[in-house]
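User: quick one
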Amino acid sequence: MIRLITRGAKVTRTTVSHADLMGAPASAVRGAIRTGSYTGHTAGLAAGKLQCNLAILPERYALDFLRFCQRNPKPCPIVGVGDTGDPSLPTLGRDIDIRTDVSKYRVFRDGALSEEVTDISDVWADDLVPVALGCSFTFENALVRNGIPVRHLETGRNVPMFRSNIDLVPAGRFGGKMVVTMRPIPTEQVESAREISRRYPQAHGAPIAVGDPSQIGIADLSAPDWGDAVDIKDGEIPVYWACGVTPQNVLLAAGLPICITHSPGHMLVADVAEDAETTILP
Amino acid sequence: MIRLITRGAKVTRTTVSHADLMGAPASAVRGAIRTGSYTGHTAGLAAGKLQCNLAILPERYALDFLRFCQRNPKPCPIVGVGDTGDPSLPTLGRDIDIRTDVSKYRVFRDGALSEEVTDISDVWADDLVPVALGCSFTFENALVRNGIPVRHLETGRNVPMFRSNIDLVPAGRFGGKMVVTMRPIPTEQVESAREISRRYPQAHGAPIAVGDPSQIGIADLSAPDWGDAVDIKDGEIPVYWACGVTPQNVLLAAGLPICITHSPGHMLVADVAEDAETTILP
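Assistant: Done. Structure below.
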């Protein structure tokens, strides 16, 4: 069990399990997280709803960060941006309080991890801007719905992630290389996987490369930089998608005095349908 | 003939016609505009390339304007954002100079039209941020390619535009009501028109309403607020799309000390393919 530093209004207890929350609506998942009843990961919860990567940063860096995300829409698809100092994100969910509604946060100071917490109420400040970015859960769900196997889900692992040699388009102090995920796909389903994932521009879209890992600067598929290695079976080809760890790395490298992200797998669960035309609540 | 106030490097002459530029690549269209050889509209030029609405505003308003556009993606799809004070837009075209590469601009000061010019070199300032937004040419081309008639194109008119009663999601001083365009579509092709236009989120996407104009606050389809009225024939239904005049109106209402837009129909012609997955040049 991971030791959590618990702060703010939440108490350190887990009274609701992941299984308990299966089938619960997004607002109930957020509610359990908000009260401290649930501090686990959000994979598989609030099926059909958009889940989001989170980046919170001071307003003076926000324009450049939005420009950076606009220029790198595949790793950094913007799905919601809050007002400065306002912890609600009304276009993503009717009652979101971004200070409490994510089950685990990482607080970075001057480019280094400072703390991992379940509540950022006492870190929140009037100059902070919350930015929500799309996440691969959305297109993975669509692949599975369409009969395309996703190995790391089948085997209960984390997706393998790799630092590529693909340059990001910089903006201000934000730039670097793209992080990609790899999923082995049966050869005859690669085109279908491309078509399906392309329908989700809010969730990394179509693959950025297929096949030989060296074409994007990956030396060894059995040694991911993050996550777990997965087997590539006969008749399968490695397929690479842009990854939401990219903006986290870029924020880290930018060395901001403070920025806050979700912890991996502990996403913001929105009320927006993951297959909606836009990520703005009607 | 409209009297143009010509400023900066361009001279007042039109040595190249619209017909001369048909079939020319985007860079040649921009080149003819840049040198002052062409000052006309861009409809039908650089076929297959993205054309863009343009908004240029001071940096201190840019974060709120980007938030506004993100919250209203159907009328205001962001396709490119420049660095502050930098007139290039390298993600949209390799040689763009936004001060000269649009054939007609409108300069607004304190919320009122100040001048209409063919060059903004002497208005440009180090604190200005250029923002390019998608335009309806993209999905209209796709409708026509797929055999769906577009009345105002058939009849050589401007698309009819209406102020709707649909509230925009505000950000900072930006907000108001959505402007919509109307195209009469044969009843049996409405679903197809919806599916086709939905594939272009960078160009207003799917319709926002179909049928009775009163449902979105339009009193009289024969009296558009901008553009030209078009006939609705037997067997056709009026279909409404979000319109790129929306951000222009919102900017005007915001009363910024200065902002600059393209003049209607005089769009920024990009090198990006209009059916590319993203609006970022590879």
